[in-house]
Amino acid sequence: MKLSAFLFVMVFGWSLNALTIGEVPKNIVLSGANGGLVKDGSQWSSSSLKDKVLVMFYVDPDEKDLNEEFADTLKAKKFDKEKFGSIAIINMAASWKPNFAIQMALEAKQKKFPHTLYVKDMKSVVVKEWGVADNNSDILIFSKNGKLLFNKDGKLSADEIAEAIKIIENNI
Length: 172
Fold this sequence. Notes:
35% helix; alpha/beta; single chain
């Protein structure tokens, strides 16, 4: 009986945090000890996921290349920066690598890709609050009004890449 009650609470609790396609997710703020922007450490809020179609990469640093094919496809599309944007949130707690080494790599990436917003999640807040996969590479796409349009954890297949691009093109 205790085990079934525990499992119910775990599943029910998880479902409260799960993202739902077509809905605006619960607001998350990354600041202070929980993280923030790579460029200056200031706070980041998911309430900023609006006004453009946005692709969010939520990535374990050890899995940074898992969806490189999708990133390259996005780059090749050269979407209008006024209508499309990208955010890379790095799950710092998921890696064995020292934070200072990840920080240096992120600062270099921010300079190389100035149109992508880089954010640090020091304590896996996005995993806990939204229920995205931990220790992985998650791809999320948001509409101009902040609604979730696409959510996939792990490596995107060729069909999933095509689906994600079509979703972006249909919502720009």
